[in-house]
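Methods: example folding runs. The two proteins below were folded one after another, and each record is reproduced exactly as written to the output file, sequence line first and structure-token line second.
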Amino acid sequence: MRPLFWTTAVTLLAGETLALYLLCAEQVHRAEARRQLMQAQARAFSDCLAYVDGSTIGSCTRAIRVWHRHAPG
């Protein structure tokens, strides 16, 4: 009876550990995707201000919103 208990306990612990790892890995993946998106938006905003003649903070903000809405994915 005792070996069955330990086998079950170890199996459950391994399953919970795997589930926690998978959850954390997914959260890290999503955070990295958000970070990359924010960096891309900051670069786009900076490029808009630097290279579009007569651009303002407001016009670049509106342009980035339009580009973001029409982006694939």
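Second run, written to the same file directly after the first:
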Amino acid sequence: MKPLIGWVKGRLIELFTYLGAFDIASEYQIQMLATRICAKYYYWTPTELDFAFLSFANGEYGKLHHYNHDRDTSVINPQDIMEALGKFDKDLLEERGRVEEEKKRQEEAKQAAKDANKPHGLEAWKLYCESHGLDPATHRIQSVKLHDVNEELYPERDENGIIKRTIDKIKRKL
């Protein structure tokens, strides 16, 4: 998490410098903001974090520093920044939901198109019967020789208990 905090700290310094507020932000404020951002918004991707800082620089989530008329200085209120991040998070989650819904609709449309190409009705039944060894006319399993079934259930074994067919297969490969 330390590398991420360092990256966020760098982005905060860049943002405050761009806004002309770097001189009024203390090292402690920047460090604590970076730590809180990483702890609270751990599920954001680096791209989303980067977009958040770009949005703040563009003023899309309000002003991040305020002019103090009494002292003729500007101040940074970390609570305003965390509030702006909360608004960004809300917008981000709504956008993620919209994108997921769109993907889901596209997948459902692909599946519907795929299903439309599959056979239906009698043709589907015939294919099912063929794949499961059923006679489509009688709906019964085709006859099986009892000898073959017994061979499968009770295979011949040699004196060591090894199935003879396995030995025969090995001999054929040699």
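Comment on the second run: The first helix runs from residue 2 to 18.
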